[in-house]
Specification:
This protein has 238 residues and is α/β, with parallel strands linked by helices. Helices cover 54% and strands 11% of the residues. Helix 1 crosses helix 3 and helix 4 crosses helix 7.
């Protein structure tokens, strides 16, 4: 009987040691992930993106707590994950024919005097010149994109269900883009995101050059408008 108790105590002791080793291993792995992410954010260059994304999935909760210890704000972390997502999806996005892609723009980019009306497919831009959407919409459509200006994720889901794009490019505030990319992953879509330069409900801003550079990936150069000018007067990158 005493022998059985000794063996049981040894087993419990071994299990306890293994548990401590696993906990310590997970902790140090999470620290490694956060250090890689922190360096990537500070230096503007993503290190080991595939490894980093897979690792973050494994230790997401602990990593978020450690991010705060490293002095990183939630928006910085979200922006990093969006950049990481785009980096990993860039080649796959470019490989999808442009006819099977869609661009979703937020209605907050429009002018406060916008004359467009909301339809079952979002706002129908009149290209009136009051905002930059009308400047870019024809260019994206000439490339072959389905372009939608929508007020929320319910419209995105509806248009995805109706038109069945295989890849989407979404623009929005940092929270909307983060949630949109997560939604796209669940729907099995290849997605890219661009965060607006300021948040708000009307007359927000976006770096159209960044949107354009993503949009032209993999597009036949003959379909890209040659005379497209950026809103700041500079020619769009070719």
């Amino acid at each position: 009987m005493a022998t059985d108790t000794t063996i049981l105590n040894q087993i419990i002791y071994i299990i306890g040691e293994i548990t401590l080793i696993v906990i310590a291993g997970v902790f140090f792995f999470a620290v490694l992930m956060v250090i890689l992410a922190w360096l990537s954010i500070r230096r503007g260059k993503i290190y080991f993106p595939s490894f980093l994304k897979a690792g973050m999935v494994l230790v997401e909760g602990l990593a978020r707590a450690l991010f705060k210890l490293f002095g990183l704000e939630d928006n910085q972390v979200h922006a990093f994950f969006i950049q990481l997502h785009n980096t990993l999806n860039k080649k796959a996005f470019a490989a999808v024919p442009v006819s099977e892609r869609a661009i979703f723009l937020p209605q907050c980019l429009r002018s406060a005097q916008c004359p467009a009306h909301l339809t079952p497919e979002g706002l129908k831009c009149r290209c009136c010149g009051l905002c930059t959407i009308g400047h870019w919409l024809p260019a994206f459509e000439q490339m072959g994109y389905h372009v939608f200006s929508v007020p929320g994720s319910s419209f995105i889901k509806r248009m995805v269900k109706k038109y069945h794009p295989k890849a989407i490019l979404g623009v929005g505030c940092i929270t909307e883009v983060k949630e949109g990319l997560e939604m796209a992953d669940k729907l099995g879509l290849i997605s890219m995101g661009v965060v607006t330069l300021k948040e708000g409900c009307v007359e927000t801003l976006v770096n159209w050059e960044e949107v354009f550079e993503i949009a032209v990936a993999g597009v036949d150069p003959s379909r890209v408008p040659k005379d497209l000018i950026l809103p700041d007067g500079k020619p769009a990158p070719g």
